[in-house]
């Protein structure tokens, strides 16, 4: 009982056929384990993927803090330290007004393309914390309101700010006060309230508009903390990477160098990180306020600066000073994120956070794809299970159905029915054989009963037949007389079919004479009637035959018309072919002309190159002769120089002779001196000539080399032109072949046109003939119809006589 | 004004002799000089001059400057300046002959060059600075002949 109740609970399970149940169970056994394991695998893989992503993200977040946010602080430290050492080394007196220009140059800021290395201010203070020299830069408006990047953003642009007058005390900056008191360098990510940012002249860059963020439908831990929990100065708080370095002189602190980079709206840092580390977004927070971020606001275009972080993140990072790592919600969008606390120079309490993260829907999409693949495999398994389960079920169920059908037929009285012989040895086979035996026994029993019932019925029928015969014989005679009168009466109405019944009695003789009169009358009418019928039949047959002729002829005409149309289409296409062939021929002719022109040009080029080659060879010969001539010149010059040397010596001796001659030799000495001068001039002139001739020979060598190269190039040119000519000749022969083919096409197209026109004419004549045949046949049909009408009239008249019994 | 002929010695050293004390200047190649044994190193040998045998001395070496053989006789041709007095003829071999210039008595400045060779000091007339700003020592040929004689 308990079991049946349980089954009833399943619903219509018992009412389903065994075939259905068996199939469902088999499919279930094959499929359910697969689906369960797929679900399990995808769940495990999902968890693992999340764990991996979280680990990677934690590393990336640490890199963001180390290589970008803290980097800007380190960069400030470096700048401050360098400037302080320069001031000490140059021996500048900070308190002397004369050294102001030099100090001003030492505050120069050199910002480049790396946003994490940029600075907003460099300030030199004296030992009382008063400004001695400074440079303050702020982001230009175009760099302040950058949208969410969909392409590489331009490097940030700065412009100088004219604020912070000289002499202003900066002791109200806690880091400055701390450095002055401790006489040590300090650095940190500093939180500066709005009035200090205003004093520095950087309020433009740091002031953010607090924007409403959607908190409805969010649980308490994903909403921001109530406003006022942290001091963010109504969105005007500044977050600055700052470093302060004391300037020392004789072991005394005489001043400070203060360097800082404002992180508010410093999009270069977050965008540089997201681009280089392929992380979808990064943010920097002052307390719980986003001051620089690549996370989009709800409008998808502006950045989500001026919004605040979820309560769970603020509690973990800012209050418990721990790293937050996990899934959280930013402006209604779920992210996998890591948040790391940032500290100021005191290192006591976090002043803000740096964060990196991935949009969760991206990950979910990737996981969903994996799961989908798993279920596709499951579907494949289900299909295989169905393919296997259906034939197995059929093998069991078909014999059972056959048994059920058989017992149903037996029940409805069909006792001759038998199950086919089977070889099955299982329970189904035994059942089939037992049922056959039962049917045989039933059939034998029923047949025995039927035979007994039929014998009883026959005996009753014989008794009834004898009584009926006696009654008929009594009435016979009375009826005969009346019958004869009634039988001959229809003759008066034209009915010739009647017969008087001829009997062996007296009435029979009278009937016999009636009968012979009616018979001869019927003979005459019958002959007329059959003649009229045969006319009518002939007329109908002929009409049908002729009608068939008419229809055939009409069909023939139609076919001819369509054939004619097709032929005329064919003629048109053949003419088109002929026309195209003519156009192609014209193109081929044009090609041949162009190739001819090219061939001529190649000829001319070849002639030109040959002429050039000859010229080069001639020139080379001439240059060689020039070389020989210049060598002759060299020889002549040597001779001249020798003459000059001898002349020089002779003139010298002449001078000596003149000097020895005393007064008388004076005039001669002058002549000798002039001769000597001339000899020396000719010697130096011959030297010059020699060097000129040397130059000429060097140049001749160069010319010879150039000539050889020119001759080789001319040779190469000749070869190339010959190749071009060969190609052109190949083109010509190919064009000739094409021309011949096109001409053949044109002439066959023309021949085809003529032939098709002749065919077309012939067919048109046939069509005309079949048209007139159809008309004539129609006339014959009409004649037959008239004949038929006449035959029908005749038949109607004859039909008044009745010749046969109906 | 007396005329002088300037002579180039080794190491760009220059001297000059009064033109009136000279007889002739001619070319001699090394192959024309016949070396004589057992003579001082300043004497290069003898050569043929118009059928006479004359002595050739290395003027540079004679005056205490670098001798010609120190540069390995790179030159094959030398100039010989002939000095003649009272039948005595001496050939002074030099690498190159310079120019003839006139200098007044007061242009040739006297000076004591204690670092110079004694033979040179004995025949030195003085020095001039020529147009090319070279210091040229003026030598008296007659005194030079006397020195050789002793």
Structural class of chain B: mainly beta
Strand order of the largest sheet of chain B: 8-1-2-10-9
Number of helices of chain B: 3
- Relative strand content of chain B: 35-45%
Spatial extent as radius of gyration of chain A: 65 Å
SS content category of chain A: alpha+beta
**Main beta-sheet annotation of chain B:** 5 strands, mixed
Predict the CATH topology of chain B. Answer: OB fold (Dihydrolipoamide Acetyltransferase, E2P)
- Percentage of residues in helical conformation of chain B: 10-25%
Description:
Chain A has 806 residues and is an alpha+beta fold. Among the domains of chain A are: 47-370, Beta-Lactamase, CATH 3.30.450.20; 531-644 and 696-798, Methyl-accepting chemotaxis protein (Helix Hairpins, Orthogonal Bundle), CATH 1.10.287.950. Helix content of chain A is 66%, strand content 11%. Chain A contains 13 helices and 11 strands. Chain A is flat. Residues 1-5 of chain A have low confidence and may be disordered. Chain B has a single domain, classed as CheA-289, Domain 4 (OB fold (Dihydrolipoamide Acetyltransferase, E2P), Beta Barrel). Chain B is globular and about 40 Å long. Chain B is mainly β and 150 residues long. Chain B contains 3 helices and 10 strands. The model of chain B has no long low-confidence stretch (mean pLDDT 86). A 5-stranded mixed β-sheet of chain B has the order 8-1-2-10-9. The interface between A and B is small, with 11 and 12 residues.
Topology (SSEs and partners):
The complex is a heterodimer of chains A (806) and B (150).
Chain A: H1 2-10, H2 18-90, H3 100-105, E1 121-126, E2 131-139, H4 141-144, E3 158-160, H5 174-182, E4 186-192, H6 194-200, H7 203-206, E5 238-249, E6 252-262, H8 267-277, E7 281-286, E8 289-293, H9 311-319, E9 324-330, E10 333-343, E11 350-359, H10 360-411, H11 427-488, H12 506-661, H13 666-798
Antiparallel strand pairs in A: 1-2, 1-6, 2-3, 4-5, 5-6, 7-8, 7-11, 9-10, 10-11
Helix pairs in contact in A: 2-8, 2-10, 10-11, 12-13
Chain B: E1 3-8, E2 14-18, E3 22-29, E4 43-49, E5 52-58, H1 59-62, E6 77-85, E7 88-94, E8 96-102, H2 118-123, E9 124-129, E10 135-139, H3 141-149
Parallel strand pairs in B: 2-10, 5-7
Antiparallel strand pairs in B: 1-2, 1-8, 3-6, 4-5, 6-7, 9-10
């Amino acid at each position: 009982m308990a079991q049946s109740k349980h089954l009833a609970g399943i619903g219509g399970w018992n009412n389903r056929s065994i075939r259905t149940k068996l199939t469902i169970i088999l499919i279930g056994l094959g499929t359910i384990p697969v689906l369960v394991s797929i679900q399990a695998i995808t769940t495990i893989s999902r968890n693992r993927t999340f764990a991996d992503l979280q680990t990677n993200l934690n590393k990336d977040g640490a890199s963001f803090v180390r290589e970008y946010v803290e980097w800007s602080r380190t960069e400030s430290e470096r700048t401050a330290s360098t400037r302080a050492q320069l001031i000490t080394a140059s021996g500048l007196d900070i308190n002397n007004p004369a050294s102001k220009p030099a100090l001003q140059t030492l505050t120069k800021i050199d910002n480049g393309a790396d946003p994490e290395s940029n600075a907003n201010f460099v300030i030199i203070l004296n030992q009382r914390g008063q400004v001695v020299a400074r440079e303050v830069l702020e982001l230009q408006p175009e760099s302040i309101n950058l949208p969410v990047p969909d392409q590489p953003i331009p490097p940030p642009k700065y412009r100088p700010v004219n604020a912070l007058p000289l002499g202003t005390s900066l002791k109200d900056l806690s880091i400055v006060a701390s450095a002055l008191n401790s006489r040590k360098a300090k650095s940190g990510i500093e939180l500066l309230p709005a009035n200090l940012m205003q004093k520095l002249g950087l309020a433009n860059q740091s002031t953010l508009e607090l924007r409403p963020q959607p908190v409805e439908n969010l649980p308490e831990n994903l909403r921001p903390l109530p406003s006022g929990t942290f001091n963010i100065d109504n969105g005007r708080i500044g977050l600055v990477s700052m470093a302060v370095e004391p300037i020392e002189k004789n072991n005394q602190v005489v001043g400070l160098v203060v360097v800082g980079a404002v992180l508010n709206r410093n999009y270069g840092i977050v965008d540089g990180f997201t681009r280089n580390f392929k992380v979808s977004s990064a943010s920097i927070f002052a307390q719980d306020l986003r001051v620089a971020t690549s996370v989009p606001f709800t409008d998808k275009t502006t950045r989500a600066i001026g919004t605040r972080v979820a309560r769970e993140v603020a509690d973990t990072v800012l209050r418990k000073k721990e790293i937050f790592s996990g899934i959280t919600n930013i402006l209604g969008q779920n992210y996998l994120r890591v948040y790391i606390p940032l500290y100021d120079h005191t290192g006591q309490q976090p002043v803000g956070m740096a964060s990196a993260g991935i949009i969760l829907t991206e990950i979910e999409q990737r996981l969903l794809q994996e799961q989908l693949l798993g279920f596709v495999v499951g579907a494949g398994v289900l299909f295989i299970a169905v393919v296997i389960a259906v034939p197995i079920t059929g093998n069991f169920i078909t014999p059972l159905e056959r048994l059920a059908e058989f017992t149903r037929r037996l029940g409805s009285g069909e006792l001759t029915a038998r199950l086919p012989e089977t070889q099955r040895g299982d329970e189904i086979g035994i059942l089939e054989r037992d049922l056959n035996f039962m049917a045989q026994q039933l059939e034998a029993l029923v047949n025995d009963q039927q035979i007994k019932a039929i014998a009883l019925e026959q005996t009753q029928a014989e008794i009834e037949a004898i009584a009926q015969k006696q009654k008929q014989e009594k009435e016979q005679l009375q009826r005969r007389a009346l019958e004869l009168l009634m039988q001959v009466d229809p003759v008066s109405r034209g009915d010739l079919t009647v017969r008087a019944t001829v009997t062996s009695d007296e009435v029979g003789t009278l009937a016999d004479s009636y009968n012979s009169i009616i018979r001869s009358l019927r003979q005459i009418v019958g002959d007329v009637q059959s003649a009229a019928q045969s006319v009518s039949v002939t007329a109908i047959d002929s009409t049908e035959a002729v009608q068939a002729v008419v229809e055939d002829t009409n069909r023939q005409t139609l076919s001819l018309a369509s054939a004619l149309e097709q032929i005329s289409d064919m003629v048109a296409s053949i003419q088109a072919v002929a026309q195209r062939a003519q156009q192609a021929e014209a193109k081929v002719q044009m090609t041949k002309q162009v190739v001819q022109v090219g061939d001529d040009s190649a000829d001319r080029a070849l002639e030109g190159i040959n002429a050039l080659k000859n010229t080069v060879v001639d020139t080379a010969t001439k240059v060689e002769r020039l070389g020989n001539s210049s060598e002759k010149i060299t020889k002549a010059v040597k001779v001249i120089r020798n003459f000059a040397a001898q002349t020089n010596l002779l003139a010298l001796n002449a001078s000596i002779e003149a000097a020895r001659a005393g007064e008388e030799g004076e005039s001669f000495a002058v002549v000798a001196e002039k001769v000597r001068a001339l000899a020396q001039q000719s010697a130096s002139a011959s030297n010059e000539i020699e060097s000129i001739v040397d130059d000429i020979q060097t140049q001749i060598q160069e010319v010879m080399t150039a000539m050889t190269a020119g001759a080789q190039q001319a040779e190469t040119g000749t070869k190339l032109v010959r190749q071009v000519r060969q190609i052109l000749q190949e083109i010509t022969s190919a064009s000739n072949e094409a021309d011949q083919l096109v001409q053949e096409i044109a002439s066959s197209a023309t021949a085809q046109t003529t032939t098709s026109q002749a065919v077309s004419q012939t067919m048109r004549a046939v069509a005309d003939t079949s048209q007139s045949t159809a008309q004539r046949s129609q006339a014959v049909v009409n004649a037959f119809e008239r004949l038929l009408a006449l035959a029908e009239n005749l038949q109607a008249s004859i039909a008044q006589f009745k010749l046969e019994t109906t | 004004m007396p005329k002088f002929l300037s002579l180039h010695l080794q190491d760009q050293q220059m001297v000059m002799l009064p033109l009136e004390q000279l007889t002739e200047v001619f070319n001699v190649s090394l192959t024309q000089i016949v070396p004589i044994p057992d003579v001082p190193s300043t004497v290069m040998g003898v050569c043929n001059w118009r059928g006479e045998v004359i002595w050739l001395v290395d003027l540079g070496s004679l005056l205490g400057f670098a001798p010609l053989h120190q540069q390995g006789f790179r030159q094959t041709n030398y100039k010989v300046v002939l000095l003649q007095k009272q039948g005595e003829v001496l050939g002074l071999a030099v690498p190159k002959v310079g120019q003839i210039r006139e200098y007044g008595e007061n242009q040739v400045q006297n000076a004591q060059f204690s670092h110079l060779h004694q033979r040179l000091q004995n025949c030195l007339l003085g020095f001039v600075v020529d147009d090319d700003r070279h210091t040229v020592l003026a030598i008296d040929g007659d005194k030079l002949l006397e020195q050789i004689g002793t």
